[in-house]
Amino acid sequence: xxxxxxxxxxxxxxxxxxxxxxxxxxxxxxxxxxxxxxxxxxxxxxxxxxxxxxxxxxxxxxxxxxxxxxxxxxxxxxxxxxxxxxxxxxxxxxxxxxxxxxxxxxxxxxxxxxxxxxxxxxxxxxxxxxxxxxxxxxxxxxxxxxxxxxxxxxxxxxxxxxxxxxxxxxxxxxxxxxxxxxxxxxxxxxxxxxxxxxxxxxxx
Length: 204
Known about the structure:
The protein is mainly alpha-helical. The protein has one domain. Helix content is 59%, strand content 5%. It has helices at residues 2-14, 67-101, 107-130, 134-148, 152-160, 162-174, 190-200, and strands at 39-43, 46-50. Strands 1-2 form a two-stranded antiparallel sheet. A hairpin with a 2-residue loop joins β1 and β2 (46-50). It is globular.
């Protein structure tokens, strides 16, 4: 999947200018040292300590009337467990590169730094990503959108131009993928979202 390898590296190039990077938050709602800030709340004349906790979403266990449906679910879980770590790598690499570029003022040094990161990414991940199936590549593109809040097509168009975006979209369509696909956790991708949350919780 040379296409996905190139897209992964592309995200490193746009890290310098993507504003959404600063808004990505770590998925931990606790303070360092596992401490909590209690607040006093009056309940019917009684002052009680309370702590605000993160909202919990409850998903029903999926039901499968047919064995073929269960096999499809198992396959989806397998594919997500394989590609989800790479979506997190993209998110974390963007955060790291964006942070490092903030300390580099010289344009030539910035370009040299990005070239160095590009070589590292290809050396570390290209082999794994090349072995992905088309289905896994499509899932990865969706998960990158989930983690960065931008489609691959939108990022390429904004930071490399329309022609570049059209070129990569054309290549993607040849391989049965679509860089304009958005991640919809409350619609078509609700099952994917529930599986990813189960993976995050360590239950899958």
